[in-house]
Amino acid sequence: MPNSLSPGSRWVRAGIAAAVLGLLVAMAAAGGSPRLHPLPCGFHALTGLPCALCGGTRAALALMRGDWSAAAYLNPLAFAVVPVAFLLAATFLIEALRGRSLHDWSVPIPRRIVAAALAACLALWLAHITFALKTPKPELVDIRNPIAGKLRSLFESR
User: Fold this and answer.
1) How far is it, in rounded angstroms, from Cα 28 to Cα 9?
2) 95 neighbors 5 (Cβ within 8 angstroms)
3) Which backbone phi and psi does 4 adopt, to 5 degrees?
4) How far is CA 47 from each of CA 25, 74, 140, rounded to the nearest angstrom?
5) Of 69, 88, 110, which Cα lies nearest the Cα of 23?
6) Which sequence spans correspond to the domains of the chain?
7) What is the value of pTM for the model shown?
8) 24-59 pLDDT, tens per residue?
9) Cα–Cα nearest to 36, from 61, 65, 71, 70
10) How would you class 71 by CB atoms within 10 Å of its CB: exposed for 0-12, middle for 13-18, buried for 19 or more?
């Protein structure tokens, strides 16, 4: 049976939903503007390779436009992140409006589900790096970096 929410919990849920939906709307309105990337990626700066999130903003924008091939090219993790963000925002918004929880958030997620989700994210990230090295992706791979340059040459020699 769903639990009734306190007024404070309703406001927190409404705030989270508004923040997530507002971020998605702002991303869509900005259309991939450089202003969306104010901080450099530390992993990319050290290795020249894309981190798990590199290209994610542009991939999420492409996914929201319905451009699946561009989203897969930029970062396949967007296929998991964008729907989950929409689902959580919608759930929190419904809970805030109804005043009752739809889900018992106090129940922990089983460890094997968390492990499987992390393994899937790691697999997507490795595929992202491999594809970025095999395909000319200058926006995601800096081959001037010794690590990325060496890995790129290994992929080219095959």
Assistant:
1) 29
2) yes
3) -70, 145
4) 32, 18, 11
5) 88
6) 7-156
7) 0.69
8) 777 777 665 555 555 667 888 889 888 888 888 888
9) 61
10) buried
